[in-house]
Structures are given as C-alpha cells and as structure tokens.
Amino acid sequence: xxxxxxxxxxxxxxxxxxxxxxxxxxxxxxxxxxxxxxxxxxxxxxxxxxxxxxxxxxxxxxxxxxxxxxxxxxxxxxxxxxxxxxxxxxxxxxxxxxxxxxxxxxxxxxxxxxxxxxxxxxxxxxxxxxxxxxxxxxxxxxxxxxxxxxxxxxxxxxxxxxxxxxxxxxxxxxxxxxxxxxxxxxxxxxxxxxxxxxxxxxxxxxxxxxxxxxx
Amino acid sequence: xxxxxxxxxxxxxxxxxxxxxxxxxxxxxxxxxxxxxxxxxxxxxxxxxxxxxxxxxxxxxxxxxxxxxxxxxxxxxxxxxxxxxxxxxxxxxxxxxxxxxxxxxxxxxxxxxxxxxxxxxxxxxxxxxxxxxxxxxxxxxxxxxxxxxxxxxxxxxxxxxxxxxxxxxxxxxxxxxxxxxxxxxxxxxxxxxxxxxxxxxxxxxxxxxxxxxxxxxxxxxxxxxxxxxxxxxxxxxxxxxxxxxxxxxxxxxxxxxxxxxxxxxxxxxxxxxxxxxxxxxxxxxxxxxxxxxxxxxxxxxxxxxxxxxxxxxxxxxxxxxxxxxxxxxxxxxxxxxxxxxxxxxxxxxxxxxxxxxxxxxxxxxxxxxxxxxxxxxxxxxxxxxxxxxxxxxxxxxxxxxxxxxxxxxxxxxxxxxxxxxxxxxxxxxxxxxxxxxxxxxxxxxxxxxxxxxxxxxxxxxxxxxxxxxxxxxxxxxxxxxxxxxxxxxxxxxxxxxxxxxxxxxxxxxxxxxxxxxxxxxxxxxxxxxxxxxxxxxxxxxxxxxxxxxxxxxxxxxxxxxxxxxxxxxxxxxxxxxxxxxxxxxxxxxxxxxxxxxxxxxxxxxxxxxxxxxxxxxxxxxxxxxxxxxxxxxxxxxxxxxxxxxxxxxxxxxxxxxxxxxxxxxxxxxxxxxxxxxxxxxxxxxxxxxxxxxxxxxxxxxxxxxxxxxxxxxxxxxxxxxxxxxxxxxxxxxxxxxxxxxxxxxxxxxxxxxxxxxxxxxxxxxxxxxxxxxxxxxxxxxxxxxxxxxxxxxxxxxxxxxxxxxxxxxxxxxxxxxxxxxxxxxxxxxxxxxxxxxxxxxxxxxxxxxxxxxxxxxxxxxxxxxxxxxxxxxxxxxxxxxxxxxxxxxxxxxxxxxxxxxxxxxxxxxxxxxxxxxxxxxxxxxxxxxxxxxxxxxxxxxxxxxxxxxxxxxxxxx
Lengths: 215, 957
Prior knowledge:
Order of helices and strands of chain A: HHHHHHEHHHH
Distance between the termini of chain A: 65 Å
Largest sheet of chain B: 7 strands, mixed
Number of helices of chain B: 28
Radius of gyration of chain A: 25 Å
Radius of gyration of chain B: 30 Å
Structural class of chain B: alpha/beta
Largest sheet of chain A: none
Largest interface: A-B, 46 and 42 residues
Strand content of chain B: 15-25%
Helix content of chain A: 40-55%
Strand order of the largest sheet of chain B: 6-5-17-16-15-7-8
Number of helices of chain A: 10
Oligomer: heterodimer
Number of strands of chain A: 1
Shape of chain B: globular
C-alpha cells in the first residue's frame, strides 16, 4: 500500500511547527515591547475638546492645582472641575473668546464638556488620590510638570511595576504636605532624607499587598 | 464620572489605506496582494491605538456631592403597614446600599433582608415605566385631563371606591381625609394579604377597642410564642430581634439567659431559636391556650386535649415557669391564630403582671381588612361600583379566592391602578399609573409604636412615577400637587412658628420625628368574654393547610426581585420556589418524597404543589408559602413557584381545615442550596445547655484539641498594626438572611438562576448552614453563618498557580480578580468551601438601569474569576485612609463595620481589630465559648464562633 505520508513530510512538519512557534514567540515579544506601558502610555497626548492650557493657568497665572481639582484631598478621584469652575473667571475674562465657545455652551445647556481621559488606570485598580496626598506625594511625581504643559500628556507609565517601585521605597517621593502642589520645588537637602523623616513622623506605610489597590 | 467604553475601539478616519498603499501599481498583481496583506496587518495595529475615553463632569456641581464619596440620607421603608427607619448610601446621586438607621427606635442600625433587597427593586427594568390607558401607552397629562373630567363630574362619589394597602402615612391620611371630604359617599378600603385582622379581633374581644401590643423582649425572661414567628416574618420590625438577642447573649457562665417556649406547626426561625418547641397543628393551638389558662388558674380546671397526653408535663412546666417569672414573662400570639388566642394571650399577660412591663399597648387605627374587602367585592359584583381607584397592591392576585376579585373588577367601569409594576391588577385596570418607588419619592411613615419618619427621595423618579399621595391629590383636586409640598405642609402645620423650618431639617437629617410615638394606653381584658370565646372553639380534624408569608417574596410583591428569590429560605433552603411542607411522618403516610407533586383540595378548591419534607413540622399539617406563581411580574419572577392564593378564602385566610391530599405522578425540580444536613462528625456547631455551660465552662473546647500544630512554613508574625478578625455569636444568630442580602448588595454579587442553583453554583459569599439535631420528627435546629474564614494558613493561597490570592499583613486573604485564571484549585482546597467561582458571565444580560445598583467601590467580576468574602476590604480601606488623613492612626473600634455586621438585627457578627485589647471582637474571642471550626487542619482562621447555648427548663431537661 502506498505510504500516507511522503518521506519529506517529517521535514516539512518540523519546519512548519518551528515557524509557528517562532512566530508566536516573536509576536509575544514584539507586543510586550511595543505595548508595554512605558512605550504605549507615556507620551499619550490626545486632543482635548477645549484647548485648555495648564501652562497658562497653573504656570503663568499661578493657580493652585486644588483650585480646580478640588476633590483630591477628600476623595479617591481627582475630579475634572465642573464647567462652573471655569466660568468663575470666564464670565468676565475672555468672555467672547471663540476658544471658550464649548465652555459657554456647556454652562448654558448643562451638557458636560467631553474631556478626554489621559491618565487611565484599568478598572480593577482602585487608586486613591486622597491617600497619596495625605502621605505627601506631589502631583509632579505621577503627572510631571503639568504647569509647563500647554497640552497635557502622560509622562509616567503608571504601570503596576512603576507604582510598586515607589511603594517599596517611598522616601524619595515624600515631601511636606504643604508643598504638594509646588511642582517646581527643589529640596534643599537629600529628598530621600526628608522623606524618611516624614515617613517616621506620619507613619506612612504604603501597601504592597494586593488588597491595597485591588478589590 | 468617566464614561466607560471598553469594547468600542475607535477607528480613526482615513487610515484604511496606510501610506504606501495609496498608489497601486496596476502592472503587478503580486505587489498588490503583498501590499494589501501588509495594509491589513498594519490596519489591525492602527486600530489598536487607545480608544478615547471621556470624562464628563457636571456642568454645575452638586452641593455636597464629591465624586467618589458617598452621601447618606435617612428615609424609611414600609412593609406590612409598619415602617423601619433606614440610612441609604448614595453614590453620585443614586442609592446603592441600604443600612438601618441607628437613631430609629425600631431599627437601631439593623435592617432586614427585605430592606436590603429593596434597592434592587428601584432599578428593576421590569418596573412600570409609563401610564397605560386600556393597554396603550399614555401620559400623566392625559390621565390628569381624564381625572379632571371624570372626578369633577362626580357629586358625592357614592359609586366611588378607593382600595389601598395598609395606610401608614400621616400625609396620606391627611389627603385621604380631604378626598373623603370631597366625596362623602365614597369608601376607602385597606387591604393587604398579610395583615393584623386576627390580632385586631383579639384586641376587640379582650379590650373592646383596637389596641396593638408592643413587646419588650429585652425585659422578658420567659417567653411563650403561640405560633408567632416574631423574630422573622410575624413581626414587621427588626427591633424585636435586637431586644430578644440582647437577653440571649451571655458573656460568661455567670450570666443569665431568657427562655423561649414555642408552640407551632411550621418550623420557623423563632422555632429554631426556641429552648422548648412543641409541634402542634395551628388548629390545635386554641385548645392549648385554653389548657394553659386552666393551668394558670384563670379558667376552671378540667383539661381538654392534653389530659392524657405526654405533653401535659410540658404545659405544666411552662405554666410554672411563666408564673415564676411573673412580670418578666411574655406571651405572644401569632397573626394566624384566631381572635380567641390573641385575647387569651392578653388575658394571660395581664394575669401574670406583664402588662406595662414586657408588653405595652398603643391605640391603633387599623381596622379589619378582609371583611372590608369582602364588602367591596360584593358591591363590585352587584355593579354598585363605577370607579375603583387602587393605590398600590395587587388584589387581583392576592385577594381571597372566594371573592373572585379579578372577575368582578371587570364589572367596574373605570379602574385606576397605581403600581410600581404593571402586575396582575395593573393589567386588568383601565388606567395603569406608574408608582414611584419609596427610594425616589417624598412621604412619611409610622413605625410599630407610631413613631413617624419622613421618607425622602435619593434620586428623581426614574420613570416619572408618582406617589399615592400625589395621585389622590390629583383626583381630589388638592391644592398641593407635589408630594414634597404635601408632606412638608402636613408637618410644618404641626410645628408652627419660627422653629418649623429648623425642625423639618432636623427630622430629615435624623430620620425620626420625635414625640410622635403613640401614647401607651392601659387596657384591662374582659375575662368573661375571653373565657366564652375559648370555650366556643372546636378542634379541627383532617389535614390542615397553613398559609405563611414567604421569606423571599413576602406576599408576592418581591417576586421579581432576583436577590430575594435566590436567597435561600431560612429553614428549607429552597430558592426560586415554594413547596408544600410536610412532616416526615405525614410524607410517609401519603407515600411522597421531595419534589413529588401532590394535589391539595380544600373548600372546593384545588392546587398542585411539590412536596418538601420539613423535619419538625407538625403532623397532619401542610405549610404553604404565599407569593409565588405570579403571572404578570417581569422576567425574573415569571414561573417561580406555584400560586397558593387559589386555596385561600376569606373565611379561612390563615388556616384551612379538612383538606385532602392526593398524589399525582408528576415531579417538580426544586432548587435548594443545602443538601447536606450532617456535620459528618465534625464539631462545627457546638451546643450545650446553660446548665452544662455552668458546670463545664470550657465545653466548647475539645479536650484533645491542639491549637499549636506543627507547620512547614515559618509562622508570620501578626502582632503589628491592625489585625482583622471576626466573632460570630451562634447564640444570637437567628438565620434571617439579612447578612446574605447585605453582602450581596455591598459586593455586587450576581444571581445565577434556578438552573445554576441546582448545580450548586449560587454566589452568596456568606451562607447560613442550618443543621438539625435530635430525632427526625422533632429536632432542634441551629444556624451557622459561614463566610471566608480569612485563615492565617490559608490552604487556598498556596495552591494558586498565578498567585491571585495572597495574604495581607493585616490578616486578610486578598483576592486579585484580574490575576485569576480560573483554575479553581483554591476552591478545591478550601475546607470551608467558601469560595465562589463565576462559571458563567452572570452579568451578561444586566441592563443599563440595573448597573446603577452596583457598588462602585467593588469590582464587578466576569466569567472565570474566583471570588469570596473579603471582610468588606473596601470599607476597611476607606476608613483607614480617612483615619490617616485625619491624623488618627488607631482606628476606633466599631468604626469599620462589615456589611453583614452592620445589618445583623441580632448583632451576632462582630468584626474588629484583634490586636486591640479593648475591641469588642477581642473581648468575644477571649470568652470561653469561643472556638474556631476545622481547627485540626491548622488553617488558623480569623473568624471564630461562640458556642450556642440553650436554656431548657430543668423540669423538662
């Protein structure tokens, strides 16, 4: 009877299987490289519906972060301010500017401005701003120099590994609570030393167990 | 605040043909194919750019509302004509969790299973959403126009009838008075299938007026329950459970406990707590009470039923105990017992000197309901009713069958039904109006003793529903049309002057209006009339059929509430169905087993029910739960159970005597969550009598129990910081399901449906294991709540291949849902079997409105993920962060309440920091009754139990 498989069938099988395995491995490596948070998420700078410039407001005008993001010291979320907050000034300042058209419309109709979410964590992560601010972590640690950004972009990967780096060694990022929103603060001595003192004084123990962030 | 759009990748315009593919070289087909292949590959990648997710802040901020922080509002929920004060947690302007109001006298922080599950009813997608006129969608404006024309044309309203549920609201009473003023000839009928008719008749018989007894279980040392499930379904308040549990708890062998005797037919939750239980048909209880009266010397001697009965001893010991505890005893009659029994209970309480101490009386505006409904049905049948306004309720489904309500309502020209759902009555009505759920409307309600609370909404009516008060105001042309104005003006009228506004705000804040309790009245029973009534009773023969409210659907109104349908009945552990409960002996007599369908015929009516054998049930007696077999109730409750109202008549709404039973050859699948009844020789529940405890205080610890077992892994040191632990007092736990529902609401636990429950896949994180002990015909029963024990040496942690479950430094067994791959090895290894696996995507068909019920602080789990009790880690984290922010490192004991602990009416569950020597949980764990289960496995669980004690009468021991 004629053999079902030719003599070269073995060779072909080995080549095809190796090719498949190699492709899969390459795909995994390539996507791990291409889609890691440091590459995929940092630099994310989407266009916002209103060309709000932090550089102008927080930088030049000197508005404190907490004027608009008023909930960071009371809540887990750092809420984007309601349109009302913008209109506190912009009923008079640049009241006719075409760039603020959407803001005025939103205030008049009650429809929210559709801001684009930049610093997005997965749904299974329960990040709490209040806890971090109370500990003395500055906005600049995770968000960078927002007061120099005309358009906000994500500067840190915000991956779990990156978070754990600080959670395992928080001292360099801990500063006195009153200096949290001073994004250009330069410490006069070793920041880690300042941090260590504050950690001891305020009993700061960032969690490294699962339920610290995942529930 | 941010809109979640996880599954819609945004395709950016203009990237269908990436650069390089815009110019096609027509000469080379191969090139074209190569380019197309490349572009397909690249197009796939470009579509992998981040989907745009939006943050949508409000245009104008809401005062006090901080996104991420819940707000709490006080309101009240009425059930069975009695309100309980509640605190409702609202996230982002929608209610998500219900708690008891610590300041309300009849809640004191506790809430029952019905209260906990009511939040799901608000978001029920099957709720009535629009006005219906003759089956066609309509609008409130059209109804208003119709009402204006129709009702203004009426003169005195002699052919107008109002039918409502029990009126419990001062503002509704005020508008009702106005309406009846406008239509002097109209009549108002109140009807609910579970009512106090017999108790009222008993009070009338005993005192000649309508009074309601208020029991004070915290002052009673000896309690006799005459077929009263006062711990669960026969009292409308959790306050009784709190009081009873307070006298049940012991701190050491030097303490005393109360003693509970019960005489009942069905094995109720109260029966399981009893120290002495006499199973007796409901129809024999009047004879028993007469004998008790004779034993106590109130009636001339000459025993009736129990002359030669071994139960004579029981009765004698009971009588002696009651007399010994005169002034500290209590006799409670159940709502299903006839008036004579209630009257006798009043009489005995008076004779024992309990009046004014363990039982006080208040006037009640309640009037008999079945008689009134019967009159209405007769009028409808005779064609004397032209307009019938039904404000809530479902009489077409739950009116006594002999009144044929659904038949005669068709003879009424104009029927207007206001209901939360378009139920059996709404379908028959000419106009159906959507009613506002209690969480979305203004109102007020009275507690058991008359204490009033204001009901305030937590959200705008989702579907434009209106309240009974508003509908009545519309019909009667009241000056105020909005519920807010009506309620507010009704109360401001009581507080005239400058303080009115302040008082209003304070009452809204507190959830209780002070000084509104009805004053206590003195009432002296008429001994002669009661004696005559007792003498007139005759024993019923044949099979008796008892009707009970369902622990899940109550009277049927919660049939579409999935949480309640899936909550296992406290004793039978049945879900999604009702069954005919029989004792083992009666089942043997009929030759039936679980699941076999029997036909029950009584009074010319017949229904078919599957059988469920209930150990401890009275012989020659069948128990049927009401509230199933609904035909118009939404997709969740459709087809659940069998309609038992068909057998219920106005002459015998509680007990039907002389029924006959025939077997059919059919079977019916019943879903139960507990199929094992034995502890398999393991000392899971440790129980002893108070006497034994006094003689051997350490009885709960086996003499050979090793607590320091050898282990391979180095022992982790848990002596720093917070260490969380829990103690559950089996002496207090009654098994009422409140903790199960609270956990479900707090942790977004899905329901799985009857099919999956039959496969053992129910998802409740805390379960109540009910064990029987003693002879099959007459056992004791005890309930043990079991949730994740948070073992220090957790067997689940070491077997997870992906480290999805780990231990926190505070002693919690953490679960990271996103790491879990669904091996289920952890559930396999857990000796307590407290881990739940999402075999299917149980949230697949959840609708947008149902999503509003989810707690945003807890992940909603998908298929393939293991979950279990976390000691409410979200609450722990929240309070820890709060304490840290406020500069307080040490968390005060009692600041963190787990959901189960907070709602437990018996305060059986205590959670806290075991590293804190002052905390309650540490004190409880130090007690000699404290033990852990399956200790020999060296799991070192953080949850421990306090052994159950019973307090038997030494004469009967």
